[in-house]
Design a protein that fits this description.
heterodimer; A: alpha/beta; Amidase signature (AS) enzymes; eleven-stranded mixed sheet; 15 helices; about 10% strand; B: alpha+beta; Arc Repressor Mutant, subunit A; 3 domains; three-stranded antiparallel sheet
Chain lengths: ~475, ~475
């Protein structure tokens, strides 16, 4: 059952929000010990469900998602609930305020089940760097779910929640969605408020939904996509009509495939699956065409420079002074800082902080950060040009399907290269989705990357929805579930 | 180096000014001074996880206003940058400031130069930024605590060119800056509350040299007197070092006003790398030509223009006009009463005389004058109408200044009105004459001094409430 189907059933009165919540809690009981999707399961779920049910009955909650149980990535602030970012540093942190996206989804009558696991401070592509342990891929527990929103993707795939909020800085929604066989979209930068989202890289971070299909994603996005005066970078999205997703036709749509996305390092099965998806869209009336986009090669270095630079600054506030982890013994102020941060952060976070400090340090700024900003502008320009010609751009989300647990942890560079297709979207600020489109020879899911122009979320999800009307990849579930 | 070298002091100033906005620069907390520790803060100004800054546009307006009043060019396309460093009073571990595109550039302020004439002090740039919190050391528990109330209070930093050559020039510049910023309403510039603080970059060089010496920086000076002492002390120290054949180290020094000496804080070698980069949480701010024009038109008459007008139109002396226009509050005292019809010169005399004296005696700044400004006019009015004598008026003014008394009521309550009944005056003087036969004789034998004594005695008998001229006339008449 999808989130919208459940929402409709609740609205009709066939089941109550409380029953739905009990069902989800049951699923969590059944599966979460195996997959470790949740860092926190809230103890007020049923109370919240009861309150929501009353408000639905009273006509206060009219959203098609009212009463549907969902999960929130553990980097979005929720009043009174531990918001750890998968880190020892914030293990003790309970915000006194809600993230705007959380506030909006609650206003739509959401029933949050708890906080979902993630790579520490959203840094990683496997959800293994979490202080709370690795999340497992429901399709194969020996595999990673992807990251950093691995808990969100795995929880949806395992049926532990009906949809989840994730965040995407360099592919953190799309890559785990691809690895776990669910649909996820990173909207246009600025379209969902970042207020209350614990920052990784401010100019790239964006909140978005992960769900069973494109229609659910559109419904969730419709609730959280609002301009927010608390986020100076948020923009008006009045022109985006997500209701139109359900009646979208790909006939006549022009889809471009960058040849550069099919270079070295791309898994054969993944390539074949994406080609097949392109054929499918073609058979539905879209025209598909290949084109060159050589700028791709600058994406990874530019991304890791900008993201690490911003991260090094954003994470400086975790100093052991005001909240969060503080080392037990320290000699003086410097020692307090050094020990608290050395002990409170994990390896990958420290690696990126150091990288970020290096590229920003005096004498290196021009060589790295300024160059990266120039590359960012070039990438944006290349996409602007491509969208003069195409409605959507199609490609793989990741070069491979889900890797085995531990495979990438020892080789960060390999892990960074896995972000090759996703990071450029964040650099350009564009919206893009991962849509299930098949499986590899091992039976692991593959997602196709649908990239649209700014504020073309409807086009992306509309095409995905049309695709999902004639395919059933998104309906498949792991054998165990 | 021979001890006969004469030295020139070269200085540049960085002045931090707290803007008079009601709320902080990136959140809606109050900017009010004081308050119990950590009561004027919220998740945003205390840097909690996930929060974002929202720019208070009034800060941009005030900074633009300041820039225009200080003859700067206004940057049309502005950005904020992050200045990263760890310190407990800085909860985000970065200060949102402006490095690459400061809001104002290339301005200047005219001051009286050392040794006469005018001199322009160049303003290199003005940028907007947020203030940090305050560390409070508790000796009782030997622990340091942080008060975040001041965190996020908007500041402008006014960076001058290295154009100063003496402590006097620095003080004149600061006085001028303070007056201008007060006049245009962007800051109260209360040095005692830290809303105007200066960092002084100082170096010395042999007179005639066109190369700058190595400079030191003294931070957060917040009184004119301390600044003057610090400049004299530090320049003397540098000259001594050089004359003894040493070299001045580039470093930050702390001026200890009690010890009358400066102490090294940190040297250039361990200077921080602030890792500046553009603030990604704030979008660029554009300031249109139209807004600049409106802002320019909305500026009040600035102190310099006022000073000239006071001289040319109101006939004040250069000195009086210059003094009065150093303070928005003295100007208000002057102009409010001028508008009520009191003569300019009389007002200027009062301000330059009694008002200045009371300020200096009480150690107060003009902004601390707590009385209704109209009372000065009322007092002058009573003198003009001969209701009180000038001497009585001075005494009454003390009460006005110190206690904010209404002078009209005060005069009545204390029965200070001039005795206008000539019969009563004459009677009192006759008694004095009768009781001081010796003085009368002396006067008659040509001793002028005796007359003064008799006038004094008569005034005393009349408790100062008679017009001294009338008293003199009556006395002379009685004495033939």
């Amino acid at each position: 059952m999808t989130a919208l189907e459940l929402g409709a059933t609740i609205k009709k009165g066939d089941i109550s929000a409380v029953e739905a919540a009990k069902f989800s809690l049951g699923q969590i009981d059944k599966y979460d010990s195996k997959f470790s999707c949740f860092v926190t399961v809230q103890d007020d779920v049923l109370a919240r469900a009861e309150e929501v049910q009353k408000k639905i009955a009273a006509g206060e909650y009219t959203s098609p998602l009212a009463g549907v149980p969902m999960g929130i990535k553990d980097n979005m602030c929720q009043k009174g609930i531990q918001t750890s970012c998968g880190s020892l540093m914030l293990k003790s942190f309970k915000p006194t305020y809600n993230a705007t996206a959380v506030e909006e989804i609650m206003n739509a009558g959401a029933v949050p089940l708890g906080k979902l696991n993630m790579d520490e401070f959203a840094m990683g592509s496997t959800s293994e760097t979490s202080y709370f342990g690795a999340t497992r891929n429901p399709w194969n527990v020996d595999c990673v779910p992807g990251g950093s929103s691995g808990g969100s993707a795995a929880a949806v795939a395992a049926g532990e929640c009906f949809y989840a909020l994730g965040s995407d800085t360099g592919g953190s929604i799309r890559q785990p969605a691809s690895f776990c066989g669910v649909t996820g979209i990173k909207p246009t930068y600025g379209s969902v408020s970042r207020f209350g989202l614990v920052a990784y890289a401010s100019s790239l971070d964006q909140i978005g939904p992960l769900a069973r299909n494109a229609a659910d994603c559109a419904a969730v996005l419709g609730e959280i996509m609002k301009q927010d005066k608390k986020d100076n970078t948020s923009v008006a999205t009045d022109g985006v009509d997500l209701n139109a997703v359900l009646n979208y036709d790909v006939k006549g749509m022009k889809i471009g495939i960058p040849t550069d996305f099919f270079g070295e390092g791309l898994d054969k099965d993944v390539a074949a699956t994406i080609e097949a998806a392109a054929k499918q869209l073609e058979s539905m009336g879209a025209t598909v065409e290949k084109f060159d986009m050589p700028i791709v090669k600058y994406a990874i270095p530019a991304y890791y420079i900008i993201a690490s630079a911003e991260a090094s600054s954003n994470l400086s506030r975790y100093d052991g002074i005001k909240y969060g982890y503080r080392a037990d013994d320290f000699e003086d102020l410097l020692d307090l800082y050094t020990k608290s941060r050395s002990e409170g952060f994990g390896m990958e976070v420290k690696r990126r902080i150091m990288l970020g400090c290096f590229v920003l340090s005096s004498g290196y700024y021009d060589a790295y950060y300024r160059k990266a900003l120039q590359a960012k502008a070039l990438i944006k320009g290349a996409f602007d040009k491509a969208f003069e010609k195409y409605d959507l751009i199609l490609g793989p989300v990741a070069p491979t399907t889900a890797l085995k647990i531990g495979e990438n942890l020892s080789d960060p560079l390999k892990m960074y290269l896995g972000d090759i297709y996703t990071v450029m979207i964040n650099l350009a600020g564009l919206p893009a989705a991962s849509v299930p489109c098949g499986f590899d020879s091992e039976g692991m899911p593959v997602g196709m990357h649908l990239i649209g122009n700014y504020f073309n979320e409807t086009k992306i999800l509309g095409a995905a929805h049309a695709y999902q009307q004639v395919t059933d990849w998104h309906k498949r579930t792991p054998a165990e579930i | 180096m021979a001890k006969t070298t004469s030295w020139e002091i070269v200085m540049g100033l960085e002045v931090h000014v707290e803007l008079a906005t009601k709320t902080k620069i990136f959140c809606s907390c109050t900017t009010e001074f004081g308050g119990d520790p950590n009561t004027h803060c919220c998740p945003i100004c205390t840097g909690m996880p996930g929060v974002l800054p929202s720019l208070n546009r009034q800060v941009v307006n005030y900074a633009t206003r300041a820039g225009l009043a200080l003859n700067c060019e206004i940057t049309r396309y502005n950005k904020f940058d992050r200045k990263n460093y760890f310190y407990p009073d800085l909860p985000k571990a970065y200060q949102i400031s402006q490095l690459y595109l400061p809001i104002c550039r290339n301005g200047g302020v005219e001051i009286e130069a050392e040794g006469g004439g005018k001199k322009i002090i160049g303003i290199h740039e003005i940028h907007m930024e947020e203030d940090a919190g305050k560390l409070v050391h508790d000796p009782w528990t030997d622990s340091t605590m942080v008060d975040y109330n001041r965190c996020g209070v908007p500041l402008i930093e006014i960076v001058s060119e290295p154009d100063f050559r003496s402590a006097n020039e620095v003080i004149r510049y600061l006085e001028k800056l303070k007056a201008i910023l007060q006049f245009i309403g962007v800051s109260d510039c209360k040095m005692q509350e830290g809303s105007l603080r200066a960092d002084i970059n100082l170096s010395v060089r042999p007179v005639g040299s066109d190369k700058f010496g190595t400079r030191t920086e003294m931070k957060n000076m917040n009184s004119f007197k301390a600044i003057a002492r610090a400049i004299n002390g530090e320049s003397k120290r540098q000259i001594e070092v050089l004359e003894e054949g040493g070299t001045v180290k580039q470093e930050t020094r702390r001026w200890d006003d009690n010890k009358d000496a400066s102490f090294a804080m940190r040297s250039k070698e361990d200077a921080q790398d602030y890792k500046y980069f553009p603030e990604p949480d704030l979008i660029p701010i554009e300031i249109s030509e139209e807004v600049i024009k409106q802002t320019r038109n909305s500026l009040p008459e600035l102190p310099e223009a006022k000073r000239q007008r006071y001289v040319s139109e109101l006939g004040l002396s250069e000195y009086d006009a210059a003094q009065i226009t150093t303070s928005k509050y003295l100007v208000a005292l002057f102009e409010e009463n001028l508008a009520a019809g009191y003569p300019a010169k009389e007002l200027a005399n009062w301000i330059m005389g009694e008002v200045m004296r009371m300020l200096s005696d009480s150690g107060k700044e003009p902004e601390e004058m707590g009385f209704d400004y109209r009372y000065l006019g009322a007092l002058i009015g009573m003198v003009q109408k001969n209701e009180i004598t000038r001497n009585t008026a001075k005494k009454v003014f003390k009460a006005v200044f110190e206690e904010g008394c209404d002078p009209v009521k005060y005069v009545e309550e204390h029965n200070l009105k001039t005795v206008t009944d000539t019969g009563a005056v004459k009677k009192a003087i006759e008694e004095v004459v009768a009781a001081n036969q010796k003085s009368v004789d002396e006067y008659k034998s040509g001793k002028e001094k005796a007359l003064q004594y008799l006038i004094g005695q008569s005034m005393r008998a009349l408790r100062g409430k008679a017009d001294p001229q009338t008293v003199t006339a009556i006395l002379k008449e009685l004495l033939g």
